[in-house]
Amino acid sequence: MSSHHIIRDEQEPPVLVFQINDNWEALSEILGWSPILIINPYLRETFELKQTKIDGYVIKEGEVVEPNKHDLIYNESQLHDDLLRWIRERNCTAVNIFSDFNITIDLFNQLDGDILKIPLIFFTENGKYIMKPNSSFKKWYPEGFKMDIINDDITRTENLIKLGSGYQVAKEGFVKVEIEGDLILLKER
Known about the structure:
This protein has helices at residues 24-31, 44-49, 79-90, 101-110, and strands at residues 15-17, 37-39, 56-60, 72-74, 95-98, 120-124, 127-133, 136-141, 146-149, 154-158, 160-163, 166-169, 173-179, 183-188. The strands form two sheets. Strands 4-3-2-1-5-6-7-14-9-12-11 form an eleven-stranded mixed β-sheet, sandwiched between helices. The chain has a three-stranded antiparallel β-sheet with strand order 8-13-10, with no helix packed on it. 19% of the residues lie in helices and 35% in strands. By secondary structure, the chain is of the alpha/beta class. It has two domains: 1-132, Rossmann fold, CATH 3.40.50; 134-189.
């Protein structure tokens, strides 16, 4: 095995699983890099049947007696605060979150780029979303790739063609999106 395949847990963005939806394939691909895996306790049997290492749990406040060091304990009314605290304590460079779309949009509406310092990648029942702090987003995409930009404060795009309510990549290469605010939310299709 070459050295680039030997990865420590702390080097890969952790994975938080509130619910899987139809995203097991994407989850399996991410888990191939052995990140820290934090799941909703009701999914424990599913992961154990697939012989997947579980590092901790996403638990509503008051539902656990003895948490471990990886657990994300949250209060539903302040999930954004509890998530940010959990991220800061671990010095995460990004976090992959498997959840429903409501968690994604709630966090987008409650957070701002000054508070959120890293990208959050959401896998929901509606698809994959990237939430990134900053007023600009730049990423390489293949020609014809489709995306939606959830922000309503877009000031400029590069290498994108407006297509109905979404966008399509004009030619293979980097796409750039700039907004007035400080938190971008994109849906990759």
